[in-house]
């Protein structure tokens, strides 16, 4: 498996994974807007297949993970962890000491994934998502474990 920069030719695979992974997926136009606006955008590739991706920002001295998603056929194979490690490396290289993300309160699997990888809950925001669900706001600031 390799982690590399997103290419426009990866878009169909990213959209497929996005729509498989989330009940309220980002539309193609939003994914393209993020890419065109300069968001960090990495993919995980096995052979010729895109199996996961991460989109993130570096703004005002902070990191923000927008989304991590992994093809269901490749979950529990450390794809998400490898994507997160690569982003952690990029943040550290850019002297970013604090990283935030939001995750649906009902997404226990993702919350536990982030906790296992050093994120802690710092807040909860009601009615964060379009359907009214709350978001758990998580933060990472312990780079001692970062590659």
Summarize the structure.
The chain is an alpha+beta fold and 147 residues long.
Strand order of the largest sheet: 1-2-3-4-5-7-6
Count up the helices: 4
Helix and strand element order? EHHEEEHEHEE
Structural class: alpha+beta
Structural account:
This protein is α+β, with helices and mostly antiparallel strands and 147 residues long. 30% of the residues lie in helices and 33% in strands. The chain has helices at 11-21, 28-36, 79-93, 108-116; strands at residues 2-5, 40-46, 49-59, 62-70, 99-104, 120-125, 135-140. The mean pLDDT is 92.
How is the topology of this model organized?
Layout: E1 2-5, H1 11-21, H2 28-36, E2 40-46, E3 49-59, E4 62-70, H3 79-93, E5 99-104, H4 108-116, E6 120-125, E7 135-140
Summary keywords:
147 residues; seven-stranded mixed sheet
